[in-house]
Amino acid sequence: MSNKVVKSLELFKKAEALIAGQTQLLSRHPSMHAFGVSPIYANRAEGCRFWDVDGNDYIDMTGGTGVVYLGYCHPVVDAAAIAQIKKGVAYPVNSPLEIELAELLKEAIPCAEMVRYAKGGGDADAVAVRIARAYTGRDKVLFCGYHGWHDWYIAANLTQADSLNSHLRPGIPSAGVPASLAGTAIPFAYNDLPDLQRKLEENRGQVACVIMEAARYLQPKPGFLENVRKLACAHGAVLIFDEVVTGFRYSRGGAQEYFGVMPDMATYGKAIGNGYPIAAIAGRSEVMQAVSTSFISSSYWSEPASMAAAIAIQTIIRNGDVIRHIWQMGERFQEGLLKLGKDSGLPLYVEGLPPVFHFGLKLERPGAYMTLMTQEMAKRGVHMIGGVYILAAHQPTDIDAVLAALREVAAVLRKAVERGSVEGLLEVPEARPIFRRRLV
Ligand SMILES: Cc1ncc(COP(=O)(O)O)c(C=O)c1O
Q: Which of 124, 285, 321, 366 could crosslink 113 through cysteines, CB 3.0-4.6 Å?
């Protein structure tokens, strides 16, 4: 078969010389996909599809790395952003859209008495952690899961180089992060209350905040989140839920509404802007007011075109239809995957709630088999890794088309499993593990 991604590969060759680290986001690095077969560069997208620079089109099951939520080029969202672009993307003073969006976020998010904006999820987490440190006058952070690239978080790997292994991925380097931050970011294990309790005790009076995703792929054990809430209170630490992924997906009020546990602050990115660069921090007024006791300020945080997009999104999801649809499409896909596992005899598992979940193969070297899956799906016009984000633009016909392609691919995987090796079938290097985030 002739190579379908020739132009992508040519561009990547140029990037190797021109772009430090080749891509801006690790998850968009081709080594995370089937390098040589998967698309690397795209120049158009619409609904749940995108077109690569070679002119191939794909159904996207990765949600554009999670930043797309309704679908690519959503007409109402784009119209709102374009209308604002025509009125100006920057002013010397503030845009009233900040207030309009804040009112909508306050209506949607249980803990939101006040909000603040930023540009990306990691950005929002860094702001929330700074606010918590300012509010408590303490330095240490207990965390679980992935929270971006900033110093406060990557500092976890200074004390022990493998601290982030089960929260992000193995091999995260920490060069450039001041050594003096060692010991300020301490990981705890998800669903392990005694671990959190012990670490709070060991650092009594020093912990500014506990920051975590309320759930990712693993779901909370009964009482876990409620007890995290109680422990944070008992130790005078601010509880922050990172809702960069769960926000507006699990429910309009995110994971905190879905699980009925209220944090002091929560952070939002990705779905909040459907691809437009906007993020938010929401929380209790008393805590949020501490923003003024530190220096937290940036030119683009009030950029109004992305705010207009976010307002349009909030208006669209208000009646719940979009979130219901995303759940239904996710359930359809999960059921299809599990049936496929049964029919094919592949040891396929699914983890997580339908809007955003992970599937994989319980095999000895799962990475090689999953790379084979990504390779074969790319050949069949589907961009897919183990992490799945459902878009509102996915229709039953799209989900069924992906499952039909996957049924063909299951035959290839079956062959590999029977042989006990992907050799002769895998045409690309094994993908580097994408964010692990199982939090175990
Ligand atoms: C839970 C969580 N927090 C923070 C981030 C960082 O967001 P961004 O890449 O927009 O900085 C991510 C990104 O994947 C995430 O999944």
A: 285
